[in-house]
Amino acid sequence: MSAAAGRDGGEGWWRGGALFLCAVMLFATVDATAKHLVGRYPAPFLNVVRYAATMAVALAMLAGSGRLRFWRTPHRGLLTLRGLMLAVMGTCFMTALLWMPLAEATAIYFMAPLVVVALSPWLLAERVGARQWLAVATGFAGMLLIVRPGGQLSWLGTALMVAAMLGYALLQLLTRRMAGKVDAQVQYGFAAVICMIATALPAPFFLPAVWPGLVDWMAILAMGFMSALAQVLLILALQRAPASTLAPLNYFHLLLALVYSAWWFGRWPDGPALAGIALIVAAGLSLTLPARGLRLARAPSSLDSRQSP
C-alpha cells in the first residue's frame, strides 16, 4: 500500500468513525426516548409511528438513487426474514423497557455478537476457535450477573430482552449471508418496509388510551427520524471504513446507556450488574479489537454492524 493510499485510508477511517459514533449516539438516544415514552403509550403504537418515519426516509433515499423498485432485488426471501427479525427485535426491545432498566437491557442486547459467534459454526459453517468460545462463555457469565435468576429484574422484561437479543443475532447472521450480494441501501429500504407492515398489523389493537399531546408527538416523531438518520449515517460510515474496524465503537452505545440510565431515569446498575456489563464489553472487544489491526484499505462490508431496534 502506498503512502498516499495509507493516508487516504486513515482519513477515511476517521471520517467513517466520526459518522459511526454519531449514529451510535442517535441509537442510544432513541432507546432512552423509547424508555421515556413506553410507560405512557403502547409499544406497538410507538413502533409503527417510528417505522413510518424510517420508511419515509428509506424510500426517499432509494428514490434519490434510482432504486425505488427495490423489491426486484434477488434474495427477497432472506430480506423479508431479515425485516421480520428487525420488527420482532424492535417490538420486544421496546416492550421490555416497561420493566427493564435501560442500562441492563442494553447490556443484554449487546450479547448478540457473542450469540452470532456461537451459532456461526452451524448456520454459516464458520470455524470458531477456543478464544471465541471463551469470549462467548465470558459474555454469558456477564449476562447471568446482570439477570441473576431470582434477583430483582422482571422475568418478563428479561425474557423479552433476550428475545430482542436473539432477533438481533439472527439479523446479523442473515446480513452476513447477504454480504456482497445485496446493496446496503436496498437492505435498509426493504427492512424498513417490512418493519412498517409487520408493526402496523397489531397497532390498531394497541391504540393509546389518551392520545399524545404536542410535546409527546414531537418526541415520538423525533424518535422515528433519529432512528432513520442513524441508519443513513451508518451506511455512510460503512462506505468509508470496514465494519470490522468500526465494530469496537459500538460499545460507546453501552456507555451512553449507563449515562442516560443515571441522568434521565435516576438508576445506576448495582455492583454485580456493573461487573456483568464489564464482562460483556470485554468479551465483545476481545472478538473485535484483534481483528481491527489497521486494515484500512479493505473494502467496506455490508450493513452488519448495527441496526436500530
Automatic annotation (TrEMBL):
Keywords: Membrane, Transmembrane, Transmembrane helix. It comes from the Bacteria. Residues 16-147, 156-283 form the EamA domain. The chain crosses the membrane at residues 12-28, 48-66, 78-100, 106-125, 132-149, 155-174, 186-211, 217-237, 249-266, 272-291. This is EamA domain-containing protein. It comes from Cupriavidus respiraculi.
